[in-house]
Automatic annotation (TrEMBL):
GTPase that plays an essential role in the late steps of ribosome biogenesis. It comes from Rhodanobacter geophilus. Belongs to the TRAFAC class TrmE-Era-EngA-EngB-Septin-like GTPase superfamily. EngA (Der) GTPase family. CDD domains: EngA1 (cd01894), EngA2 (cd01895). GO terms for molecular function: hydrolase activity. This is GTPase Der. Associates with the 50S ribosomal subunit. The lineage of its organism: Bacteria, Pseudomonadati, Pseudomonadota, Gammaproteobacteria, Lysobacterales. Residues 3-167, 179-352 form the EngA-type G domain. GTP 2 binds at residues 185-192, 232-236, 297-300. Residues 447-467 are annotated as: Disordered.
Length: 467
């Protein structure tokens, strides 16, 4: 395993900014507000090719032992326990605060090597800024400007001697070998609870407060011999209700996570009616062409009448995605999770299935014989052959004539025909029509001398008949 370095400090000192600088990414959500980061966020630093390591971005230790602050502190302590080295991030503009001393005392009790990174030194006298923190007695106290990526080289040089030797194992989990699953839904639908239940540990913060999760968190999972990458995302509300800038960025990252995933699991609260926002999220998944599984959570708390009404509502409003599997689960108690993961595997297999050109053409011929497209100006569109155009989602390219006039209803007929033929459950199908160009469209037919004489004779003959 790669060595682990945890970034620890007060809220709003620049830990997430430093995380993005070390990982050369924008995975961590950054805002000029305290308490933006709550869960542990992992990334790999490859800036030193010989000694890569895992960086853990943590939430700020506010010193409050209740509510979300207490849950965040618990996540920070878990990161400290698994780290081999600690980077204590400080704010040069705020100076040395009593809260920093309390955090340092806790870090020293862990027995791990500590580096003090004094952030936000841009525009200040570095020596004067470091002098205030000399009272900590930390030998490696370094100036840093994470926002401008200054001082990271010295930080990396100071970290290298503190890290254990490389064990020559795989650097990081290869997501190409795993099924990427994005778990999306409205706030407080139970997304983090589902991830924790699948992992069997409190990996993510779970709270009754809506909007607890802000950053999309990627978590590897191996279950029944298969590898997954679960992406827990922030809850998405209606645009009219989104006012804070942090929530807007969280929604953007949620949509990006859906685009990066292979299967989207939409979490729906069974105790609430299916909202328009749920349908909007389904629409985003369809635009990205992602496989879809509907997970109806909190099913165990409903009586028989409520369950019947919920099922009817789902059947009525989800007719446009009737190919998506509906799974009724309880993320809190773990019921229905086996069926949910089986639905995810089937949807992924259907979305990534490779189709052959000859088989697609034979299937197209059967569909055309069973039901031909309506006539267009007295002529029927001709569908000649088909070939695959890609996967995730499965794309079928159909060549023919007058295909631009094919009605949407006939296109849906073809989608359903291909879905039934290849048993493509849980994934959308894209049909792309290609119409061959007329090779004589812009060419003028030049008559020979004999054809011109014949044409003149026919004109004279027609004039005689009119007389």
């Amino acid at each position: 395993m790669l060595p682990v370095v945890a970034l620890v400090g007060r809220p709003n000192v620049g830990k997430s900014t430093l995380f993005n600088a070390l990982t050369r990414s924008r995975d961590a959500l950054v805002a000029d507000l305290p308490g933006v980061t709550r869960d542990r966020h992992y990334g790999v630093c490859h800036l030193v090719e010989q000694r890569p390591f895992v960086v853990v971005d943590t939430g700020g230790l506010s010193g409050v032992d209740e509510g979300l602050d207490a849950l965040t502190a618990q996540q920070v302590r878990l990161a400290i326990d698994e780290a081999q080295a600690l980077v204590f991030v400080l704010d040069a503009r705020d100076g040395l605060l009593p809260q920093d001393r309390a955090i340092l005392d806790e870090l020293r009790r862990s027995g791990k090597p500590i580096i003090a990174a004094v952030n936000k030194t841009d525009g200040l006298d570095e020596q004067a800024a470091l002098a205030e923190f000399a009272a900590f007695g930390i030998a490696a106290t370094l100036p840093l400007s994470a926002a401008h990526n200054r001082g990271t080289d010295r930080l990396l040089a100071a970290l290298q001697p503190l890290l254990p030797e490389d064990t020559h194992e795989e650097l990081a989990p290869d997501e190409n070998d795993s099924i990427r699953v994005a778990i999306v839904g409205r706030p407080n639908a139970g997304k983090s609870t589902l991830v924790n239940r699948l992992l069997g540990e409190d990996r993510l913060i779970v709270s009754a407060v809506a909007g607890t999760t802000r950053d999309p968190i990627r978590v590897p999972l191996e279950r029944d011999g298969r590898k997954y990458t679960l992406i827990d995302t922030a809850g998405v509300r209606r645009r009219a209700r989104v006012e804070e800038a942090v929530e807007k960025f969280s929604v953007i990252k949620t949509l990006q996570s859906m685009a990066a995933a292979q299967v989207v699991v939409l979490m729906i609260d069974a105790r609430e009616n299916l909202a328009d926002q749920d349908l909007t999220l389904i629409g985003h998944a369809l635009e990205e062409g992602r496989a879809l599984v509907i997970a109806v959570n909190k099913w165990d708390g409903l009586d028989a009448y409520q369950r019947e009404q919920c099922q009817r509502a789902l059947e009525r409003r989800l007719q446009f995605v009737d190919w998506a599997k509906n799974v009724f689960i309880s993320a809190l108690h773990g019921s229905g999770l086996r069926e949910l993961m089986r639905a995810v595997v089937r949807a992924h297999a259907a979305a990534t299935r490779e189709l052959g050109s000859s088989d697609l053409t034979r299937t197209l011929e059967k569909a055309y014989e069973s039901y031909q497209p309506p006539l267009v100006r007295g002529h029927a569109p001709k569908l000649r052959f088909a070939h695959p155009g890609g996967s995730n989602p499965p794309t079928v390219v159909i060549h023919g004539s007058r295909t631009r006039h094919i009605a949407p209803a006939y296109q849906r007929y073809l989608e359903n025909f291909f879905r039934k033929r290849y048993k493509l459950e849980g994934t959308p199908i894209r049909i792309v029509f290609r119409e061959g160009e007329n090779p004589y469209a812009d060419k003028k037919n030049v008559l020979t001398e004999a054809q011109q004489r014949k044409r003149q004779r026919m004109i004279r003959e027609m004039k005689k008949r009119k007389r």
